[in-house]
Amino acid sequence: MTKTWFADIILPLAVKGRFTYRIPDDIVDIVEPGVRVKVQFGGKKLCSGIVCNIHNKQPLVKNVKSIIAVLDAVPAINKEQLKLWLWISEYYLCSEGEVMKAALPSEECLDSYKPRIETFIKLGTKFSCMELNMILDGLNRAPRQQEVLLTYIRLSEYEEGSEIKTVSKSLLLSEAHSSPNIIDSLVSKGILLSVPIPVSRLSDSDSFQEPVKSLSEAQNVAYESVNLQFKEKDIVLLHGVTSSGKTEIYIHLIEEQLKKGKQVLYMLPEIALTTQIILRLKKHFGAVTGVYHSRFSDREKVEIWRRVSGDDPVNGYRLILGVRSSLFLPFGNLGLIIVDEEHDSSYKQQDPAPRYHARDSAIMLASIHKAKTVLGSASPSIESYNNAVNGKYGLVVLKERFGLIKLPEIVIANTREAYRKKLMVSHFTPELLNAMDEALGKNEQIILFQNRRGFSPYIECSECGWIPVCVQCAVHLTYHKGIGKLVCHYCGYTIGVPSKCGNCHSTGMVTRGFGTEKIEDEIKIVFPAARVARMDQDTTRNKNSFNKIIRAFEDCQIDILIGTQMISKGLDFENLTVVGILNADNLLTYPDFRAHERSFQLMEQVSGRAGRRQKQGKVVIQTSDPSNRIIRLVLRHDYVNMFRMQAEERMTFNYPPFCRMVKISVRHKDRSLVNYYSDILGHDLKEIFGKRVLGPESPVISQVQLWYIKTILVKIERDKSPSKAKQIIIEAIDRLEKEKGASSLRISIDVDPY
Ligand code: ADP
Ligand code: ZN
Ligand code: ZN
Domains (ranges, CATH) in the chain? Predict the structure, then answer.
């Protein structure tokens, strides 16, 4: 008797586990791990899933359904990817189906991938000059056709006897100011020929112009040290101050891998993936360099996918410059992953699941490929630095800037005192204004950083203190002057600006606090001759506006650029000498155990933009609390002591990296029910974990889009098994979900919340 075969399949569902289907005999030969198959799930619903493994163990359930069809001739997903998905789902407590949804480009596109076809035009036959002239004469009474033919001859640089060249149809049309039917008539006469040619959807330049730069002595020592430590360790943390030339070191490491025939993944935070860095790499590595971010269309993503996987051997990508999700590309042959700005919180996916950390998942992906990982930062995360100090990671330190330019001088400006002495001009201290004046006088450029967009964070009734809030979220509405509206930054809810107080009907509504829009307005008044621009989410909604602003700044068409954290990363401007941080207080007072670490990192990053090429830059930090310990540390660019101080605090109060954390969020549209159910879960967890459970608590934003939120934190000791603890948490949530009425809850789990 022949055996019956079964396949365990991942389906794109939030339900845990794999699903077993029978493999019909006639397709046994073509079902293998990694191929996509069509199956029926539940009642009638058809969906496609991925085969993980094949076996002949009869499942316990009766009526096992059969696979309906196989969708791929060769596996769409390789075994390294399947391993990564499994790890993410186990570590971050989500289903493999949720990972699959995040990882795969849209289903239809992968099903039916078609290369883009462009039509090209060429001569029907190798006409001699004489024949061609006769044809042109013959077209005397069809002048528009004649014009097209003449344009073709010009564009194709026709020469008798030499090879016939093609010209893109769209180019021919525009150059000849013609219409398609004119070309069609020439084609139907056999004079011209229309040829379809597959082309790329991606705008690649295959210019390989420059060999990599030679490293400075300090860079070379660092580079050698990375390689030396790789002999013993798989992960090396490169702690190099801003503008020390980390990127150049990466470029050398990449070159080495490409020479070995390996692929490299170079990850960056979304806002750091600028044209500047793309061009910097393409200049050296040319067409093997691919870029991957979330703004590509699905079709473009599929093309990148194929070029990474080796399906396209001619145009294959061997270096990918990508954001968080580039982790999921089908690398076959990774030698190295670089995680630049490894401390950046945007590496952590928030919503929806999988809530993975791309840095930590990259380390896992590298280990699956037996590849190495470089984590790079000017101010590493406490987690990574701690791993380096403990010897788990290698550590390479680069203390000097390239060209031995000094780190920027930091000036602390006391806003409280300046207000008291009436020295403030709008939101600017004398220290900042002086520095700006001086820079403008020398035609140097300035960046002003304010981590809030909009005109003012809220408006308020000057009589009774009433503040307009969002109807769906527990937040104040932000005033945007340009559009004359109040906007919720959490759900987008927008209303006109009320002329009267909603409480006492007084007309004295006033703006409070300031965002980038207000700074832009006021800077124009203070420096009327300066050319001012603003870069934040509001001014960069269009596809190219981000690049336009950067280019204008590069070309010195802007003197003062005001921006949010968008301007903090990766940018390298030659003529920028002064950076102003307008309000350090709202960074430092954020209620999160990482607030101090983050504000140090952000201030270092922003400062790092100043004075990168010729001379030392200057940074003015405005604060009402000049003696703040973090500010004192930024003043000296003292990362190591910042680390020590934070590590000590976190050890004392038991926070990561000295424990692991799992955050459970319970949401309900009814405030009392969210309280009721989160209390049940809290009690249940406390029975098992005792004091390790914090909460339930209302988060800072306690309602978003009508859903009330309560959070519970579970701290797990480093020496305890995280998988066992996670299992207990899952079981407690299962018990809660079985409570009466609990089906209207939304529960989410966030492992290592960021
Ligand atoms: P980081 O990534 O550490 O912030 P970059 O790699 O951007 O620093 O280097 C800062 C500046 O110095 C850039 O303009 C870069 O082109 C230049 N630079 C760095 N290393 C070299 C080198 N070895 N040769 C020439 N220029 C360099
Ligand atoms: Zn009022
Ligand atoms: Zn809202």
Answer: 6-112 (3.40.1440.60), 116-199 (no CATH), 217-401 (3.40.50.300), 409-453+528-648 (3.40.50.300), 456-513 (no CATH), 659-751 (3.30.70.600)
